[in-house]
Specification:
heterotetramer, A mainly alpha (472), B mainly alpha (605), C mainly alpha (111), D mainly alpha (321), B: 605 residues, mainly alpha, globular, C: 111 residues, Helix Hairpins, 70% helix
Chain lengths: 472, 605, 111, 321
């Protein structure tokens, strides 16, 4: 019986272990991160297998619910946790290439980031969710500024301002809910949400929706994303795109579905999702800088997931979660590849990267990642996109789906332009070193595996999304 | 034969082949060839037992193996077999990657043909379209980008069509679409979306812009793309109009002299495509672009047949698609052989290669006969059926466009023959050798059906008849050697006998006296001093025609697309202004968003 | 209806947001963030208020105020402090790099 | 079955032989008539027979390569095949076995074979000549195809033998569709490459174009080809518009009907040929752009009018021959 709390305790333990090891030898700290994330990934994997039988409950500190902090791990939480830790482990291999000196602080923050994201996904208690959100945010603020250059600091500043306003709203929401229902356990809240005073319920929902929206990169709140992803070091932007963003979306899904079952509010969520996709994809087309382009494209993808959640049918929500997994893998791969391209071309402008990806070790995974993000079949991105589209159609959202398809044509346009430049016959082909191409190949294999044989993942998702949407 | 063997042979096997042949380095095409041969053998063996099965890979895929699938698979399998055979000796760079992607495309094509539910159709369609994208990427990123934009456009048209059906019936299966729930106007939208979606693959006029670019990548791939994969567009339109919707739905839009009002505009579009495609082909100097526009023109004929919808027209369309698969890929392989030997693409830079590469010349000549519709090849029969279908129904706009387009086909056919194979042999091509054996074998395979089915049209008309009756249409009336329409018929047996006898008469007169061979510079120059340089009149060959057509040629669809997309991109830059970069504006956005959410929340309560 | 005595904390939040949006200096913005944070903490505490009850300490008799928000607010304050510390260190970093704390100059200098 | 098959083959062979002889005779007459129009004496009418005999008997025949032989073989075989499918003088030859569209494409075989042979002669004049010939073909085919379409729509058949019967029973093509007949005659001028449309074989500009390298037996056979094509094009016009010269119904009068019809057919094709020759005698030569613009302007307009007339009569007025 794996106690989910271990998934949170281990990274914390290793995070504070790294300064001690740091004293002994800098090299070993890097291996520590890899070991810690690997351990976490295997634990999450075992937990996932176990969770298939029955949801796992884990009471911390002996307090009985509804007061004690309870880790409620459903199959969905487990699968997202597993993906988060797996991607964290793969990115940690890429961390070996980080040159910046204070590696000890880097490893601490990185492990805290992993802990925070996993915690957000596993926890069943609202305030605990807020605490883990804060842990992730603090780790992200400092990691965003890790490069200590002007771009890094400015990005971090923007993230701090928007992030803390967001978390204040979350706290506001929590207090309002607590003031009415006197409980913080999510299942409890979901059960007794009806008894709340409608006006307070609306304010609470809006503030929670807004707070988690910041983390989930929804349209008006994702203004910090491009600057932060651009300023942060490469492995970190890869981590940002897959770890906190996924946790944020998961929290949003919980807010929308488990706690507040607002069916007539969902169409507004769909519109917000569409706006996010629209602004994400269209501005990504105008970007010259690779990392900003990938940041905007990740906004677009998150918008698609939000749209999927908003549509609300079992198929669409299933597609949204599937897309969550595919996007985590795809974006991590693209950001690592971007890291290599920037390193090889010595500049982050796309024009200067002529022919940098001609080496098959980088080229093929990059192509697989891009095609998966575009939603091409044998890769993970296909099923997510297809189910969301079909869910949208079954709810009659013709116009919205048509607009979404137009936006994704723009997405294909700028990815094709990027691939064209990167695969052109450039002058010299640079061989990537092990720390770069191993994660790329691992992620590519994962994407193909999930794409070619989706049965296991779909089995989990079908069962979960039916439960979440109450068969809506 | 159960679900797994069908799925295994036609989908898993090529996928495994794709994986294996990547590591084959130089011998990759041979490995790929073996895999394609295996599927070919099974295709032959399984002719009889058709059936439909479902395979569960997490999502249910409904695969059906019936005569329609078999007919199209026959084309695609033979074309990819000969393309790979050609590639064996064409020593392409990174042949491993080439054969992997070809097999992926082949899997996608097989999947589209086998699938009878929209999920698997869309899955395999996208798989096929992106593997073509990467194949074009091997030659030029820009061309690949333009292709992918249209490829994705076609996929999203299809998705829209599928979505509307899914909204009404809630299921992906083809047959459920007919469960009578879908209202009549929704069918109009569904069919328009599906036809446009599949039409992009068949390069119908407004959506043809990607074809000339896509067709200038490696020749063996292009012959598979234009010969094989464009048939998927035909298959898609045929299935969506006559199997998913069915004649009942089509006629519910009102019929105009027996042809559904929905089908007629697409037939007209097809005729315009045939005409414009042929005219544009006449003026191209690059052999690949010329063949690309000619392919657009020929597929315009098929579109006419599909649009008209009478059994004769559909029979003609299927037969013409069959012929097009063979003579077009034969032409591309011929051009590929010439490019392989001389390294040149421009027609005017070649000349006189027919004397050095006689077999390639004969194969290309035979393909030209097929293209132009000369009765010595089966190309004539399919064109004949399309004309008869149009004239039978007294369509006075479609028929002239098609007839003039076929006369135009003579012009660009001769431009290929004269420009490349006849005229003066240039100095640097003196020592050009004949194309290597595998190339000639590949071309020979493609030539055979054109000849056989011209002598005995009964066999293929039999298959086409089965396909038509399988989708519930009236059969065409034909016998072993003859084929009829309501206003005329023709007997190929008497034609061939008469031709042989009269040819023998001409030979008899001809061989009375022997002739002395003379080198190419010993010409009659009406008194001028004969020049030692080989003069070749192929440069800017149809200049007078180009001058007369000049006012028309100003308008080009490509530029229209560029202007159209420029308009949108400027819009993107406007939207970009929202991300000002100043955190205070961002905080303001947050506050405003909160207020908007509150108002909407209140309003909803 | 929301009890009127919550208005104090909500006004604090509004003031905080106003400062962040209006003021140009970075430090002032950070202070604004802090005010907003304290506003919500105040709200959190006032939620747990019970008429004439004392603080929930071990050996103090009498009815207790609801202890949960007390615990929550402790963690919230700690979090607020750490975020502020981080924001200030970033502000120092920006000052080192751009030599100014005025937002307009930083924005102007950026592109 | 074999016996009457052989009879039919023999009859077809006889008609073909007669056609070629008439063709050579017409070429002689044309040279005589043009000479008379340009008030000079001109060669004797049988001159062409002598030319063909001389050319075929030549010992030294120059050839460039094996593709060069294509021209005479395909040209002669193709024109004879086309003639075989064309009812001449009421006898329907093979036209029961194939229809108008098959005939249209069979007429393309000699043109393409001839073009191949000319192209293989490596003489740039030949290449330019063939280019002009193909452009001319594109130009005159536009009105001609519209005319054929009008006929097919009006008589509701594409097979020549039924067309003859319908013209016999209802009315001759020229009576029913006079406008189309006019357009057809204009197109005929281009088809037969008579001045003003003899641009491809312009002797002064490109040394008789495609024919430049052909000599000896090649030229002889090509002369037989052009003789055959004269009869082919004139008979086509007569079959389409003048009922193929069928005056007496062969079912009632037997052999006499065949002979009388043959004579009437001969007179009709002679008249059509004379129209073309007289125009040829007085007209200068167009440039190819002029010819193209001319054909795609006036004859096409006329042909379209004819087509509209046929369309209205057959679809709206319901006239069914």
């Amino acid at each position: 019986m794996i106690r989910p709390v271990l998934l949170i305790a281990f990274p914390l333990f290793f995070a504070f272990l790294s300064p001690i090891i740091g004293l002994w030898s800098k090299k070993w700290v890097r291996y520590l991160i890899i070991f810690a994330t690997a351990l976490n990934a295997t634990l999450a994997g075992l937990l996932l297998l176990e969770v298939f039988q029955h949801p796992v409950f884990d009471i911390i500190g002996g307090f009985q619910p509804p007061l004690g902090i309870v880790l409620m791990v459903g199959p969905l939480g487990a699968i997202i946790a597993f993906i988060i830790n797996l991607v964290a482990f793969i990115i940690s291999i890429y961390n070996l290439k980080v040159e910046k000196e204070p590696i000890v602080r880097y490893s601490m923050l990185y492990l805290l980031l992993v802990m925070g994201s996993t915690g957000m996904v596993l926890t069943g208690d609202l305030f605990n969710l807020f605490v883990f959100l804060e842990v992730t945010s603090i780790a992200s603020y400092s990691l965003a500024a890790y490069n200590k250059d002007k771009k890094g600091f400015l990005g971090a500043m923007k993230y701090v301002i928007i992030g803390s306003i967001g978390s204040t709203f979350v706290l506001l929401g929590i207090t309002l809910i607590y003031s009415e229902l006197r409980t913080l356990n999510m299942l409890d809240i979901a059960a007794r949400i009806g008894t709340m005073d409608p006006y307070v319920k609306i304010i609470a929902f809006t503030s929670l929706f807004l707070g988690f929206g910041v983390e989930a990169e929804m349209f008006p709140l994702n203004t910090w994303v491009p600057d932060v992803y651009d300023g942060a070091p490469n492995p970190i932007s890869a981590a940002f795109a897959s770890l906190p963003a996924k946790a944020g979306i998961f929290a949003l899904a919980r807010v929308i579905f488990t706690m507040f079952s607002f069916t007539n509010f969902l169409w507004f969520v769909v519109i917000m999702g569409l706006l996010t996709v629209f602004f994400g994809e269209l501005i990504a087309y105008t970007q010259k800088n690779l990392k900003r382009m990938l940041a905007y494209s990740s906004i677009g993808q998150m918008g698609m997931i939000i749209m999927g959640l908003g549509i609300g049918t079992t198929l669409a929500v299933e597609g949204a979660f599937y897309q969550m997994i595919a996007h985590a893998l795809g974006k991590a791969l693209l950001f690592i590849a971007a890291g290599f391209l920037i390193y090889a071309a010595k500049s982050d402008k796309i024009e200067d990267m002529k022919g940098m990806a001609r080496n098959p070790l980088v080229g093929i995974p990059l192509l697989i990642g891009a095609l998966s993000i575009m939603g091409m079949p044998p890769f993970a991105g296909f099923y997510g996109k297809f189910f969301i589209l079909m869910g949208g159609f079954s709810e009659g959202y013709y116009a919205i789906i048509a607009l979404f398809l137009a936006a994704s044509i723009v997405e294909v346009a700028y990815y094709a332009r990027f691939i064209k430049i990167v695969f052109e016959k450039g002058n010299r082909v640079i061989r990537p070193d092990a720390a770069t191409y191993i994660p790329l190949i691992l992620l590519a294999i994962l994407i193909v595996l999930i794409g070619v044989y989706p049965k296991p993942i779909l089995a989990v998702l079908q069962h979960v999304s039916a439960f979440i949407t109450g068969g809506a | 034969m159960d679900a797994l063997t069908l799925f295994g042979i036609f989908i898993l096997l090529p996928l495994v082949g794709a994986l294996l042949s990547y590591f084959g380095r130089k011998y990759a095409p041979i490995i790929a060839l073996i895999f394609v041969a295996i599927t070919g053998i099974f295709l032959y063996v399984w002719y009889g037992n058709f059936g439909s099965y479902t395979v569960d890979i997490g999502v249910k895929l409904n695969l059906t193996f019936d005569i329609t699938t078999w007919f199209f698979m026959l084309m695609i399998n033979t074309v990819i077999f000969s393309s790979l055979l050609f590639a064996v000796s064409a020593d392409l760079k990174n042949a491993g990657g080439f054969s992997t992607l070809m097999l992926l495309g082949f899997t996608g094509a097989n999947g589209v043909l086998l699938s009878r539910d929209f999920l698997s159709l869309y899955l395999f369609w996208e798989l096929m379209s992106w593997s073509v994208y990467v194949l074009i990427l091997r030659t030029s990123g820009e061309y690949a980008r333009r292709y992918l934009l249209f490829g994705v456009l076609s996929a999203y048209f299809i998705i829209m069509g599928i979505g509307i059906i899914y909204y009404y019936t809630g299921s992906f299966l083809y047959e459920d679409a007919l469960s009578g729930v879908i209202p009549y106007y929704a069918w109009a939208w569904i069919l328009v979306f599906l036809i446009l979606g599949f039409g992009v693959k068949m390069a119908i006029i407004p959506l043809h812009v990607w074809a000339p670019y896509a067709y200038s990548s490696e020749q063996p791939f292009v012959s598979f793309l234009s010969g094989g994969l464009s048939k998927l567009g035909t298959f898609g339109i045929y299935m969506s109009m006559y199997s998913i919707a069915g004649v009942g739905i089509l006629d519910s839009f009102g019929t105009f002299r027996g042809v559904s009002l929905l089908g007629y505009p697409f037939a007209l579009l097809g005729a315009i495509t045939a005409f414009v495609g042929t005219i544009l082909a006449i003026f191209q100097d690059d052999i690949r672009k010329l063949l690309a526009y000619s392919s657009i023109g020929q597929l315009g004929y098929v579109m006419v047949g599909l649009g008209l919808g009478t059994s004769l027209a559909l029979g003609g369309a299927l037969f013409h698609a069959f012929n097009h698969a063979f003579f077009k890929s034969l032409l591309f392989l011929g051009a590929g052989a010439v490019i392989y030997r001389t390294g040149k693409y421009k027609i005017s830079e070649m000349g006189g290669l027919g004397y050095r590469m006689p077999f390639t010349f004969l194969f290309v000549l035979f393909a030209i006969f097929g293209l132009a519709g000369i009765p010595l090849t089966s190309g004539f029969i399919s064109k004949w059926m399309l004309y008869e279908a149009a004239i039978e129904k007294k369509f006075v706009i479609i028929a002239p466009l098609m007839l003039i387009a076929s006369v135009g086909a003579f012009l660009y056919s001769y431009r290929i023959l004269y420009g490349i194979f006849l005229g003066g042999l240039k100095e640097e091509h003196k020592k050009v050798k004949e194309a290597p054996a595998p190339m000639l074998a590949a071309m020979f395979i493609l030539m055979l059906p054109l000849l056989i089915f011209s002598i005995v049209p009964g066999w293929i008309l039999g298959w086409i008849n089965d396909v038509l009756t399988n989708t519930g249409l009236k059969p065409i009336d034909y016998t072993q050697f003859t084929y009829y329409s309501s206003i005329g018929g023709a007997n190929m047996a008497t034609f061939w006998i008469a031709f042989m006898v009269l040819f023998f008469v001409a030979v008899a007169i001809f061989i009375m006296k022997r002739a002395r061979v003379v080198n190419q510079y010993d010409n009659y120059f009406a008194g001028e001093a004969p020049s030692s340089v080989a003069l070749h009149a192929a440069h800017n060959y149809y200049k007078p025609l180009k001058d007369t057509w000049a006012p028309m040629l100003k308008y080009s669809v490509d530029r229209a697309y560029e202007k159209f997309s420029k308009f949108f991109v400027d819009g993107f830059y406007e939207i970009k202004k929202i991300y000002t970069g100043n955190p205070q504006d961002y905080a303001a956005y947050l506050g405003i968003a909160f207020l908007i959410f509150l108002i909407i929340g209140w309003w909803l309560l | 209806m929301i009890p009127y005595y919550y208005l104090g904390s909500i006004s604090l939040v509004v003031i905080g947001i106003y400062i962040v949006i209006a003021k140009k200096n970075l430090i002032k913005i950070i202070i604004g963030l802090d005010i907003m944070d304290t506003g919500v903490n105040l709200l959190l505490i006032s939620v747990g208020y019970v008429k004439n009850a004392t603080a929930p300490i071990e050996n103090v008799p009498g009815p207790y105020v609801d202890p949960i928000p007390q615990a929550l607010v402790l963690t919230a304050i700690v979090i607020g402090v750490s975020v502020m510390a981080l924001a200030l260190s970033i502000a120092i970093g920006i000052y080192k790099k751009t030599g100014t704390l005025e937002l307009d100059e930083i924005m102007g200098v950026e592109e | 079955m074999i016996v009457d098959w052989l009879i039919q083959a023999g009859l077809v062979a006889l008609y073909l032989f007669l056609a070629v002889v008439i063709g050579l005779l017409f070429m002689g007459i044309a040279r005589k008539v043009t000479a008379r129009v340009q008030n000079r004496v001109g060669p004797p009418v049988y001159q062409n027979f002598l030319d063909v005999g001389k050319l075929l008997a030549k010992k030294t025949n120059i050839k460039h390569n094996w593709i060069f032989d294509f021209a005479p073989l395909f040209a002669l075989a193709g024109v004879l095949l086309a003639l075989a499918y064309l009812p001449m003088g009421g006898y329907k030859m093979l036209s029961g076995e194939g229809d108008l569209i098959l005939l249209l494409y069979i007429m393309a075989i000699p043109a393409l074979g001839f073009a191949l042979g000319a192209g293989a002669s490596a003489n740039p004049n030949a290449g330019v000549g063939v280019m002009r010939a193909l452009m001319l073909m594109l130009s005159y085919e536009m009105p001609f195809l519209l005319v054929l379409l009008a006929l097919m729509i009006f008589y509701n058949t594409a097979s020549l033998s039924t067309l003859l019967e319908k013209q016999m029973s209802f009315a001759w093509g020229i009576v029913a569709l006079p406008i189309s007949a006019l357009a057809a005659d204009l197109a005929l001028q281009g088809m037969m490459m008579e001045k003003p449309f003899d641009i491809p074989i312009a002797p002064h500009e490109i040394a008789s174009g495609p024919l430049v390298e052909f000599g000896g037996k090649y030229l002889g056979m090509l002369m037989l080809y052009s003789a055959g094509s004269i009869v082919l094009e004139t008979t086509l016009f007569v079959d389409l518009f003048l009922g193929g010269g069928v005056v007496l119904n062969p079912a009632h009068y037997g052999i006499i009907a065949y002979v009388v019809n043959y004579l009437v057919w001969f007179v009709f094709i002679f008249i059509v040929w004379m129209i073309a020759v007289l125009i040829n005698a007085v007209f200068p030569r167009f440039r190819i752009e002029q010819a193209f613009k001319f054909y795609w302007k006036w004859p096409t307009v006329i042909a379209i009018l004819g087509l509209i007339q046929a369309y209205i009569m057959s679809v709206f007025m319901g006239v069914v021959p």
